[in-house]
Amino acid sequence: MRFLPVFLDLQSGPVVLVGSGELAQAKLRVLAAAGAQVRWYAAPGRHDVRDLEATQAAGVERAIDDPLTADLAGVVAVFCAGAGDIGLAMSARAKSLGLPVNVMDDLAHSTFIFPAIVDRGDVVVAIGTGGASPVVARRVRERIEAVLPARIGELANFIGRFRKSVHERIPEFLLRRRFWEKVVDGKIGALVLSGRIGEAEAALKDISDASAFAGALSSGEAEGSVTLVGAGLGDPDLLTVKALRALQDADIVFHDEDISVDILDRIRRDAARVAVSRRDQAAANRQVIQEAKAGRRVVRLKAGDAYGPGRGGKDIAALREAGITHFVVPGVVAEFGDVRPFASSALSRAPRAGGVKASNN
Fold this sequence. Notes:
Layout: E1 15-18, H1 21-33, E2 38-41, H2 54-57, E3 60-63, E4 78-80, H3 85-96, E5 101-103, E6 116-120, E7 123-127, H4 134-147, H5 152-167, H6 173-185, H7 187-193, H8 197-205, H9 210-213, E8 225-230, H10 241-249, E9 252-256, H11 261-264, E10 272-276, H12 281-293, E11 297-302, H13 313-322, E12 325-329, H14 344-347, E13 359-360
Parallel strand pairs: 1-2, 1-4, 2-3, 4-5, 8-11, 8-12, 9-10, 9-11
Antiparallel strand pairs: 6-7, 12-13
Helix pairs in contact: 6-7, 7-8, 12-13
């Protein structure tokens, strides 16, 4: 990943747009829709804002002086589209001042790229391809648009309004996250997504014990658990929905040393990762149990079909003996053929196994 996705605070200052014509106007529409205050340097008579709403047009400053000598104090970022050679000179100036700059379709003169955007109010998804293929980014955006609920931004706003008051009632960090996971995945989240905000607020206010709602033990502490996940062939596209959910919900993941990077990339970014040796499974089990007893949600990730039917017996026995709540998610493997785990050359011809079910213990 060469480009780290970031979100600019457009309330902290104006952005500069340099250029004329349709390319500049297309960029202007995106910036204005995001609520930016835009200082637009265009050729005389080329400041066309007819495509903007009145409130958006009011946020556009039509600049006619030279952008190469203009005062850029307080500017958040510089965008060049349809600017020609002036765009290249503006890029050099922005870099010298330490300002982020994007020159349309010119990676060499840009310090950031402009992503494809899915806008749901308070929820914004940015899709980038490192500037290599805007068409691929657009196709990814189309897929996300198709599956992302229309009111997902309202759900984020709903949580934001109650977050501080709820956190004051839940002292433990792990329980705070689980509280909101239960809200998002349960009845309250469904009410918000269906537009029934009033009912959702009433349901949230009816929760008398926020820690208990989040699944706290009688002691008030978070309950730990372990999910045993088989990584299957090492192809992330073959991970089950349940396996992906476990990797995203985990606080810490203990994984075999040879698990593919593609699989590990599916783990929640701020979850801890610990590589363990297959040669000492007993030591790995002790670590897993220790973390679960500390209230964490632990994933034990093994290569292949390590947790398929009739497998993983020692791991499961250790968890049962320790009294740890645990779940099993088998890996998807080929039913026949000479497919080896993590052999990428074989993935395309490996049949997908049918009838594999995840079971809970």
